[in-house]
């Protein structure tokens, strides 16, 4: 039953996020279609790798999971640094939308439920799960604040964004250090994070968590750009000089 609920939540979240973000991008229709196809292929790859049981391997699974997690972050970050067009397009995504889509993170309560039935162990499901729930619940009022010119608007958004980003960073660290057989394992607690190597839960570290980390980075960048106009251009010049 939990797998069915997890599948519905994960697939719905991916579909809504993809459609919402792509539809707002200031790009020609052809480029938005290409981007949608590329994301679809990535989700298919992540799904296929998990379905074949590659991620369940005690040693090899961690080796495969790492690039699946980091590649979306690296590609997006590199493209934003090197291309002014990509950078301006990403910064133009409405801040309320980026924040509001985090409401899907209330599904983190499923981590706690998986722990209760013995499919996740250690501190990870409780810290990551309840952290996601808090972030998701707070995302709606934070999105409302972002859509209105209120007193201390920037501070409120920054506080929510910092909490949400920290929650994901802590979850990633706990996930890696709780994985049985991982060379970085520090926490030995029953099944650890083995449950995240099976579908539909594997879509979290390979698709959804990278997206949410990117969205937090974008919100930080947008707040920085609003406070310091021209900051993004100077960032691009600096990256070009380094290149």
Describe the structure.
By secondary structure, the chain is mainly α. The protein has one domain. Helices cover 72% and strands 0% of the residues. It contains ten helices and no strands. It has helices at 2-24, 29-51, 60-82, 84-91, 95-100, 109-116, 124-146, 153-177, 203-227, 231-242. Helix 7 packs antiparallel against helix 8 (153-177). The protein is globular. The termini are far apart. The model has no long low-confidence stretch (mean pLDDT 89).
Write the layout of secondary structure elements.
Blueprint: H1 2-24, H2 29-51, H3 60-82, H4 84-91, H5 95-100, H6 109-116, H7 124-146, H8 153-177, H9 203-227, H10 231-242
Helix pairs in contact: 1-2, 3-4, 3-9, 6-7, 7-8, 8-9
Please supply descriptive tags for the structure shown above.
10 helices; mainly alpha; single chain; 243 residues
Structural class: mainly alpha
The pLDDT mean sits at 89
Query: Percent of residues in beta strands?
Result: under 5%
Order of helices and strands: HHHHHHHHHH
The coarse silhouette is: globular
Number of domains: 1
* Distinct helical segment count: 10
- Rg over alpha carbons: 18 Å
**Uncertain stretches:** none
Question: Summary?
Answer:
The chain has 243 residues and is mainly α. The protein has helices at residues 2-24, 29-51, 60-82, 84-91, 95-100, 109-116, 124-146, 153-177, 203-227, 231-242.
């Amino acid at each position: 039953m939990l797998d069915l609920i997890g599948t519905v939540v994960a697939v719905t979240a991916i579909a809504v996020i993809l459609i919402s973000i792509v539809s707002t991008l200031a790009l020609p229709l052809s480029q938005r279609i290409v981007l949608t196809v590329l994301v679809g292929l990535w989700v298919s790859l992540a799904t296929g790798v998990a379905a074949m049981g590659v991620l369940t391997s005690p040693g090899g699974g961690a080796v495969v999971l790492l690039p699946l997690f980091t590649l979306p972050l690296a590609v997006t970050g590199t493209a934003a640094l090197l291309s002014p067009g990509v950078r301006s397009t990403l910064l133009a995504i409405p801040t309320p939308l980026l924040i509001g889509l985090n409401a899907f993170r209330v599904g983190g309560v499923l981590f706690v439920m998986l722990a209760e039935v013995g499919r996740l162990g250690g501190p990870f499901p409780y810290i990551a799960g309840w952290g996601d729930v808090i972030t998701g619940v707070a995302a709606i009022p934070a999105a409302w604040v972002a859509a209105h010119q209120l007193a201390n608007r920037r501070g409120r958004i920054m506080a929510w964004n910092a909490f949400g980003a920290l929650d994901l960073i802590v979850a990633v660290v706990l996930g890696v250090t709780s994985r049985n057989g991982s060379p970085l394992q520090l926490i030995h607690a029953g099944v650890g994070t083995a449950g995240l190597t099976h579908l539909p839960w594997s879509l979290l570290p390979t698709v959804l968590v990278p997206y949410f980390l990117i969205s937090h980075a974008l919100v930080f960048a947008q707040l920085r750009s609003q406070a310091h106009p021209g900051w993004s251009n100077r960032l691009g010049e600096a990256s070009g000089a380094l290149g």
